[in-house]
Structures are given as C-alpha cells and as structure tokens.
C-alpha cells in the first residue's frame, strides 16, 4: 500500500499558448489534509481537474493510491475519490433524499448510508424538500454527502467552503477532521486562509502555475519571525515629542510604536526580556490592554505571492 493517496509528478498544462501549470510535483499522504492555496487563476482548479481525469495534462503524471494513471482513470480508482466543485451538481427540483438515492443507485450504495449521511450533515429534517429551496450552505453539505456516498479514500474540495454560514462551515470542517481520523486523505482548495490554518496538516502555495512551497502552516508562520507583544498604555496627549523620544530610546530594532488620542501602542519582540520590559513600562504608564501578535497564513500568503 502506497504511503501517498495522491502524487503528481512534474505536471504541466497549457491551453493554447498559455502555460497554466508549469511542473507541479505534489504529494498527499494517507490521512493527511492538504490545503491548496493561491490567488485567482493560479491553476488550482486545473490541477484538480487533471487529478480526477476531467482534463489531460500536457506533460507529467498523476499517481493515485500508488498506481500511475494513463489517459483514462479506471472505474475502481474513480470510486475511491469524492470531489466537490464550487458549482452545484445537484438536481434542483428533486429533494435531498431523492438526489442521494439516485446517485446511490448508480454507485450501488445502500439507502442506509444515504440516511446516515443526511443525519451526519444535519439535513434530515429538510430531506424531503426540493433542493432549489435550500440555502447555499445546505446545498454544499448535500454536495459533500453526494461525494461521500461511496466512502472514498480521497476527498477533494475545490472552493467548497466559500461564503457559507458559520453552522454549515462548522459541520463541514468537523466532518473533514473526522474523515482524517478515519485515515482518509483530503485535498482542499480554498481562499479562506484562517480555515486552511485550522484544518490543514500541510499547505501548498501555487502561484502562476508553479508550486512555490509546501509545508506545515506553523513552519510558514514561524519563518516570518512575527511574534510581538502589543501593549496599549494611557497617555494624555500633552507632550507627544517627549513621549516619542522616550519610546524611541526604549524600543529595540524591529519594534514599533504608535501614538493615539489618549493612549499609545507599542509592539515588543517576544524574547526572554519582554516581560521585564513590559513591567518597567507599566511602572511609568497605565496599562490598558495587552495582546500577543503572531504571523497568520495571510502574512505568509502575501510574502509568498510577492
Ligand atoms: N478550459 C480552459 N481553456 C482555457 N483556459 C483555461 C481553461 N481552464 C482554465 N483556464 C485558465 O487557466 C488559468 C488557471 O485557471 P484555474 O481555474 O485553474 O485557476 P484557480 O487557481 O482555480 O483560480 P480561482 O482561485 O479563481 O478558482 C486561468 O488563467 C484560466 O483562465
């Protein structure tokens, strides 16, 4: 059994003169949640379409569960993959139950599983209502149910969590984490960096068809060395010049301050001396607020896509 559910090897794709993928080699391990991040037009959807065999690559290879794929992906491999795209693939006039029943019939899946999925995704009470009356979040939950009918080993979500209400987003997130616990692999393409940070074991940054970097979110964030204590102190705006001079002499290189109406803020680098220095300031000024500021994936995204 291969360690990887999915591997692409130097995958390239051109549409006429436009080189959309320029040699992507990406691996998703079993039991791993991999995030695919990148600006609009980076090539994320094209990559996913090649992985599941909707598009053929111009060059390179896709390996699924250890086996090299040719032009057509075999039916038994297809059955191990569930995919959710941004656009709906549901029958709007049918209700949720009949939608799933239809696809369950095609895939030889039991009606018990249909009922279980509707319950897990909190769609039981609406199951007999036409899908056209559903909210965006409910439709998305149903699309995921559809993708999970055949209990796939690899679930691919392309922009599947965008613009959802918090309840639907939470149901989907919890389900993704549960699937991971069962040893399934999940590839998520998303613009929601906070979500990628919370969910993904590793994230891959794609820009202009190149794979820029792949690593754990924490490794990317740590690499930015953004780790500050943000302190706010009260200060009557009487002698700003004197205060500025005082703060300039206090701050280390890389630290900053900002004067506000009745207060000032400063950002101290978190190191072994930070608490001692914060206490010293607190003897001089009245402390209003204290926060820890760390890099997030938004900062990493900006850095990577410069
Ligand atoms: N069938 C096609 N024919 C021609 N060009 C295409 C085709 N499909 C995609 N492209 C182009 O390939 C580039 C990458 O598109 P893709 O949809 O893969 O990006 P993406 O990273 O998924 O973007 P987004 O985040 O906006 O969904 C875009 O410039 C797009 O116009």
UniProtKB/TrEMBL annotation:
<dbReference type="InterPro" id="IPR027417">
    <property type="entry name" value="P-loop_NTPase"/>
</dbReference>
<dbReference type="InterPro" id="IPR017871">
    <property type="entry name" value="ABC_transporter-like_CS"/>
</dbReference>
<dbReference type="GO" id="GO:0005524">
    <property type="term" value="F:ATP binding"/>
</dbReference>
<keyword id="KW-0067">ATP-binding</keyword>
<protein>
    <submittedName>
        <fullName>ABC-2 type transport system ATP-binding protein</fullName>
    </submittedName>
</protein>
<dbReference type="InterPro" id="IPR003439">
    <property type="entry name" value="ABC_transporter-like_ATP-bd"/>
</dbReference>
<dbReference type="InterPro" id="IPR050763">
    <property type="entry name" value="ABC_transporter_ATP-binding"/>
</dbReference>
<keyword id="KW-0813">Transport</keyword>
<keyword id="KW-0547">Nucleotide-binding</keyword>
<dbReference type="Pfam" id="PF00005">
    <property type="entry name" value="ABC_tran"/>
</dbReference>
<dbReference type="GO" id="GO:0016887">
    <property type="term" value="F:ATP hydrolysis activity"/>
</dbReference>
<feature type="domain" description="ABC transporter">
    <location>
        <begin position="6"/>
        <end position="233"/>
    </location>
</feature>
<dbReference type="InterPro" id="IPR003593">
    <property type="entry name" value="AAA+_ATPase"/>
</dbReference>
